[in-house]
What does this fold into?
Amino acid sequence: MEKTRDRIGEDTGRRDSSKTSGPEGRIKIQPKQAKTRFVVHEHHARHLHWDLRLEIEGVLKSWAVPKGPPTEPGVRRLAVQTEDHPLDYIDFEGVIPERQYGAGTVKVWDTGPFELLGQDGRELKFHLQGRRLRGTYYLLHFKEKNWLFFKGKKLEGER
Ligand code: MN
It folds into this structure.
C-alpha cells in the first residue's frame, strides 16, 4: 500500500511540474480580423452596367460588368477591370454630375462580406456573402483588362 501511494505521489508531482509549460502556456490569442467587404454598384451611366468592387489590400479593386453579375453557376460574364477606388466609396449611392467621369445614377445592388480564398496571377477565387451574390466566385484574367466573372459549382463537401 505504501509503495502504491508513493508512486501516485510521484506521478502527480510530475504532472504538476509540467503544467507551467503545458497547453495553457501555448494558447495564442488571435486578434479578430476586420471583415473585408464587397459591393456591386448598379450604374446608370450612358450604358447601364454593374461595378463589382472587392476590398483588397486597402482599396476597392473594380470591374465593370456590362451584363450584370452571375447569380448561378454556369454563367460567365465579361468583367472589365477599371481603376481602383478608395475604400469609403463602398457605401456610395447618388448622382455623378454630367460631364464628370461615370456621369449618372449609382445604387448599391448588393454588398456584404468578401473573403479572398486564393490568388495567383491569372485567377482570383473568393467568397461573397451578399443578398444576391452568395457563394464561391472566380475572376479569371484572359486579355488586357478583360476578365471572366463566374460562380463556382458547389461540390459535395464544400461549404
Ligand atoms: Mn461604373
Remarks:
- Residues 1-6, 8-15 have pLDDT under 50 and may be disordered.
